Structure formats: structure tokens, C-alpha cells
Amino acid sequence: MTAFVAAIAAPGREAVSPASLAAALGAPACLPHWQSAVGDGCFSVAIIGAGSARTPGPLRADDGAATLVIGRPLSSACGTDETEQLHAADATTRRRLLHSARGTFCLVRHTRGDAVELAADKLAALPLLYGHHEGVWYASNSLRALVAACPPLAQHGDLAGQAQLAALGFNLGERTAYARVR
Q: What is the DSSP letter of 77?
């Protein structure tokens, strides 16, 4: 399984170091990681088990957008990997491609306009969790890594989420044990 954690800093915010993201994953500092300037913001990523990542790092476009795809978004028509098409497509085409894609994947995209797009496969076989703190968006497929990357996200518990976790062993829908993590 591939685990990742990404941090997207808004313009004027200090970038999160990829080495600190690698530490949040409990990995050595030599772990593959990337940092990319996008507009006035910064996109930082650390990945464990990068064999499942379809790219050696976030794909970068001429307009400054950066896209990270973990897993394999497959075209429902012919079973081809749509990673490059998802990165290059405009927003409407990307939504159409994501809606028709099968396979297990999650996508994190940061554009020059400092917009953040998050997407996961229809069954959320690869979970995608996210939180926002002081102008930085954090995304991960591991709750432990997400809270380690940004401890303030775990400061406020979600009582209903904790009850679900205790009773069922998992959370329903977008809820987690933390109020600031979805």
C-alpha cells in the first residue's frame, strides 16, 4: 500500500518541508519527497511505497498546476491509465474523467489560482482525508500521518465520530474522530 501526505501552503504562508512530512509518515528522511512552487503557494509531498504512485512525483503543467495521483484511475471504456489526461484536462473534462474512472486512486491537485482539488475513487478504496490549518491544506490517505503532519488538526475531537469508531470500528461517511479532519 502507498501512503502519502501532502501540504499545500497558500500564498504568503511558509511552506511545509517535505522532510517533516516524511517524518509524519514515520519514514526516514531519504524517503522520496517533492516540493513545487505553484503560483505564490507551495505544494509539498512525501510518499511511502511509491511503487503504486503513477508518477515519480507530482505532475507539473506549464501553467504551474501540480497534480499528485496515487493508484490507477482507469478509463471505463478501454482500461487505460488516465493520469496524464487528468492532469492536462480543464476542470469540466477532469470531472467527467473522474466520474467515469474506475480503479482505485486518489488525486490532489493545486492550481496557480491557489485552488485545491481532491478526488477519490467511488468506493474510497484509497481513502483521502484532509484538513485546513492556518492557510495550509493537508491531505493524506492515512489519518495517523495527517495528524502527525499537523497536530493542531487533532486538538478538537468529534464526539459522534469517536462513538462511531468505538462502536463500529470505522467511521461513516466523511466523519472522523477529529472535528477538523474530513
A: T
